[in-house]
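Comment on both lines for my students:
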Amino acid sequence: MIPENSTSAADHRPMIGVSLKLHFGLARTRDWLAEVAALDDALAALPRPVDLFVLPSFPALADARELLSGTGIAFGAQDVHWAESGAWTGEVSAGMLAEAGARYVEVGHAERRRYFGETDETVTAKTRAATHAGLVPVICAGERRAEDLDAAVDETLTQVRAALSGAVPDSEVVIAYEPVWAIGARAPAPARHVRAVAGAIRGCLRDHDVRGRLIYGGTAGPGTYGALAGAVDGLFLGRLAHDTEGLRKVLGEISGTAGEEISGSAGG
């Protein structure tokens, strides 16, 4: 019997997310967004549907809204503040992002934790703000060091549970499992490792009243999804997607194996 709060096969529709971080200037971002928008016909022609979202820098959100309008491609932001208003110099609220047309917002990335001192409490508050505003938080979680599997699961689930404790009931969330030691590495984390941690995250999602999907990031690229199909719902891409032909290739790969992924997720 499937628990009432578990997600259905439809909730595990394959997904690709792309964060540009701070790699591009505004003009280059606009050019890249135009290239991504041109992928819409190819996206619509895939044998199985795949959701695609992109996360440019804050100043490019208006460009994303303009250039992606009329396509099936969503956009969002790379960060959000936990307060809706007030004396928070330099910050951007979830409500403002929603007004700007954003659908997704990234929270809890390892770089935010390392360089800006964000904690589980910070991520909880940002998840709460995002879901209250109707945004879909892309909650980044993952262990810092390549440790044994039990330690990886414990560290990752601590982060996931904290974030989900802030989510509005029945809200949509995306968990981006990103082992920190695999970010920017030569190869993604081993498939066996990812599958084990992903299974634990799935169980955590079932324990919370949310509609969740799970994607993998950390040197993800061609071949990554094929090794993980059935364990994750998609990929969170970085520099590979700077070349939109690389993005096109991964879209096709995910679409081609999506039936196996959906049936595996529904039965797990």
